[in-house]
Structure formats: structure tokens, C-alpha cells
Amino acid sequence: MPNDSNTGGVKLNKHAKGPRPQYFSDPASDKLLAMVMALAGEVSVMRDRNDTLERLIETKGFIDRSEINTYKPSKEIMAERDTWRESYLSHILRIVDLDTGDMGRNDISSEFQDIMDSV
Amino acid sequence: MQVRDYEQFAHAVLPEVTAEEFSRQEFVKSYKKHLATQVSPNTKVVYETQVKPAFEKEHGRTPKNRHEIRKAMNANNHYQTWSSLLRTSQEMMWKSCQVPVERQLDKLISNSRSTKNAGGSLKLDPTLDIPRYHTAVDIHCQPGGYHTEVAENDISAGAVYDRGVYIYAMGQLGPMNDDIGASTAAYLKYAYPDLAPTRILDLGCSAGHSSVPYKTAYPDAEIYGVDVAAPILRYAHARCESMSVPIHLSQQNAESMDFEDGSFDLIVSHILIHETSTVAFRNIMKECHRLLSPGGIVVHAETPPFKDMADDFDSFLLDWDTYNNNEPFWSKSHEIDPPSAAKEAGFDPDRNFEFMAPSAFEAAKENRTNVFQGGDFGGGGFWYLYGFQK
After folding, report:
1. Which residue of B has its CA nearest to A96?
2. Which of A49, A50, A82, A96 to mutate against chain B (most B CBs within 10 Å)?
3. In a mutagenesis test of the A interface, which of B16, B49, B77 is the best target, namely the one with the most A β-carbons within 10 Å?
4. pLDDT tens digits for B172-220?
5. Rounded Cα–Cα distance for residues B15 and B221 (Å)
6. How far lies B5's CA from each of B25, B166, B194, B362, in Å?
């Protein structure tokens, strides 16, 4: 595994001084969103790693874990990964894209009742 | 030194990243790009098709300014989601840059103290008060701001900031993060072809991103930089020396400096003013007037003011950072009126200028959104310059 644990003994404060705005009426939603995006980030990190692994297997025919840690993508592979992440983010944020259509309306209970009554 | 247009230039104190740390930063870059290009445009659609009609129905008129738009949008779920996503991306960005620095800070400090000597200098003042506009909140949500120190000879704030700026701008400021300085210098060469400064001062120079391109533009000039924060100045010094660019850095507040009257021909600042205050801006302008030689020029580079936005909605978008990214002076600083500021500081109001300078880093041109919106100021494609000649 990569040596990305903190061995220097220094701890930087991870929270910016100042109140964090509340975006949704329920603060739990803000937390949930942050969790989902952190998770999305970690999946993306794993995907990058897997991509690296597969490329090394392809070119070398065997796995050397230290090579995975030092692998540095080329400009072309970085562009491929950019494209993949773009599509990946479209999946994760699907619900946001729908805000401009019917799914974004939250005042449709009477309209939906009409549909129910009509069937 | 090898510079590639698709990655940050690896000078002696740029933090190294493991493959995983690099992927984490790359994710944040993609996440921000997705928000800027795919989600942000829908914010305007939602405003035009949902929020504005509802406001008009309730009030019998359209929203009269960016503040009314913000209040109406704050209640809209799409905007809440976009805002929450953008804020979260900013927090993830800083963390993705902090973890690698934490891991290798000893080595980075050691590197910073053993760089080659390019002829620059560093003068720190431990007695200098860090102004309240930097301590009240951590500006742009960088934990600890520019000034917090966690080790002896600390450079962590600079190391986090340097990488953070690159990720924030999604590389659009170039491999040296120097687009603002390079674009401003290009304007000065174009507008003032006879200007041959012998001493140039960069106010609030932070990591020296914008100071360095002045050495390219004016190779014979001596370049000076001031900043209030020691850890970022130590970092800037090591970075500039390792890039073989001599800059004379000192820890001073731009509101009151120890340089002699008339000792500079050119004074510049880059995205500094919005991180100060009303009183500080007034003081900085007076200091600029004092320090300039006759005919000397001061120019401040920022994102465009509200008056240059196409409409109130665009002003509202520009204003996002004020309320969501710990930028308390952003809003007021984008209302600065250069002619009034000129008069107040003793400059001739007829010799001030405003200019939209195109971004100098050409390689990013086709990917820019050309919109001035939270999370993507490197993508605006222009920098707003305002300046004064003594």
C-alpha cells in the first residue's frame, strides 16, 4: 500500500475557521451530501488505482505493487481519466440534472392526485 | 527545468503526492469542472423558469438586485444542492492538499532551507500583527489561512496553498499558477510600452505565483514582494530561488511598509484587494501613492466588478464566494469605484484606468467557461485590472 499515512507527527487543522452555511432545511442533508461526495471521491481513487493495475498487467505481464504506487499517468491517460470521471459524475449527480424537468418540481401533489383519480 | 502545460511545475518545495493522493486531487479537479460546466448552467435555467416567475407572482415585479435574487435562490432546492456541492468541493480540495503536506512537512522544510541561491532574499518580522481580516475567518476556507504555523520554519500554509490554487483553477492558471501576473504584465507591456521599471513591488504576494512573471516581463528590474504571513513567505522564497528567480520578500502589511517614498516605478497586486477590508484598501492606496515615483503605476488585478456583469443574476453568481467561501470583503471589494479611490489617495482621477486583460495562459483557452462564477475564477478568461498613474 502507498505510504500516505502521516508519519511526520504534524497535524494540520482540517476545518476552516468561520460558520459553515446551512444549505438545506434539514442540516442532515448537508452532511449527507458531503458524505456522498467524499465516498464518490474514494470510489474514484479506487478506480484510478485499478486502472493503473490493469495497465501494468497489460504491459508487464505481472504485478509489482511498488510500481502501482509510483505510476504516473501520461497526458493522454490523464485525458482518458478526465473523460471517465466526467461520465462517472453524471451518474452520481443524476438527481441534480433532473432539477430542470418534472422531477425538480415539488409542488405536484394535487397534479399527481388528478392523475391517480383519472386512472 | 522542464515545464509541461498539463501539470504543475515541480519546483523544489512542491509537495510530492503518492498515486492515491494524486487521484484524490484529480477527482476534486474533475468534480469542480463538472460543477462549473454541467451543473452551474442549470442554476440560471432554474432561476429563469422557476424562481424568477415565482418572485414576480408574489411581488408583482422582478428582483431588483443580486441580494433579492440570492434570498429567493436560497430557498430553491437546486441552488441549495449546487451551493452545497460547491462548498463541499472546496473543503475536499483543501484536505486533498493538506494530507500530503502533513506527511512530508519535515522534508519540505528541509528542502526549503537548502535551495540554491538565486539572489533573492527573505526578511521576516515576528512582531507584525496579522490583520483581523485574515484572522476573523479562514479566507476561502483554507484551514489556518496563510498565517498559521505548526512547526519551526513552517512552510505548510504555502505548500497547501500552491497545490490548492492549481487544483482550484483546474490548471487554468498554467503550470506555474502565474496567469494573473503574466496577464497583468502583458497588459502593461501593451498599454505602457515605454514603461521600464527598475523596482517593482508585488503586494500580498503569497507564494509568489504572480511575482515571478514580472522578472520575465522586466528582466532588468528588481522585484520585491510583501505579505503578512511568514509561512507563505518562507515557501515563496524557496520556490522562487529554486526556479532561479530572485525576488526580495519581506513580511509587511501593505497598509504600512518600510520602503522609502518614491522608491518603486511599478506596484502590482493580484487577487489581494478582495482579501483585505474597506479601511485597509484606503490605506493600501495611500501607501501606493507614497511609494510610487513620479509617473509610476499601480495596478490591482481582480475578478470583474458587479458593474461589469451583464445582469443582476450574473452579479449574484459572482457574489457566491462572499457568503459561501469565507470571503467577507469580496462583495464590497467588487463595488470599488476606481475614480473615487484615485481621488481619495491623491492620484489624478484622469489618469486611472480599467481594463479587462485576456488570460495569458493560452493552452487552457478552449476549456474555459468564460463565466465568472464561484469555484471557477481561473475559467473567466479575463482578469479585471484597475490602476492609477502618479
Report:
1. B78
2. A96
3. B77
4. 999 999 999 999 999 999 999 999 999 999 999 999 999 999 999 999 9
5. 30
6. 17, 12, 31, 10
CATH, residue B56? 3.40.50.150
Q: Which three cell numbers stand for residue B352?
A: 486611472
- Give B54-68 pLDDT, tens digit per residue: 999 999 999 999 999
Prediction ipTM score: 0.79
Residue B135: list chain A partners with CB under 8 A. 17
Residue B11: inside a domain, yes or no? no
On whether residue B6 sits in a domain, the answer given is: no
Bridge partner list, B250: B123, B226
**Domains of chain B: total:** 1
* Contact assignment for A16 to B26 by CB distance below 8 Å: no
In a domain, B338, yes or no: yes
Measured between beta carbons, the chain B residues lying within 8 angstroms of A30 are: 84
- Provide the total of helices (H) and of strands (E) in chain B, helices listed first: 15, 8
In chain B, whose CA is at the least distance from the CA of A106? Answer: B77
Nearest CB neighbour to B102, from listed A12, A20, A49: A12
Over the range B29-55, which residues count as b (16 or more CB within 10 Å of their CB) and which as e?
Answer: bbbbbbbbbebbebbeebbeebbbeeb
The boundaries of the domain holding residue B196 are 16-390
Q: Are B73 and B308 in contact (CB under 8 A)?
A: no
CB contact under 8 A, A100 and B18: no
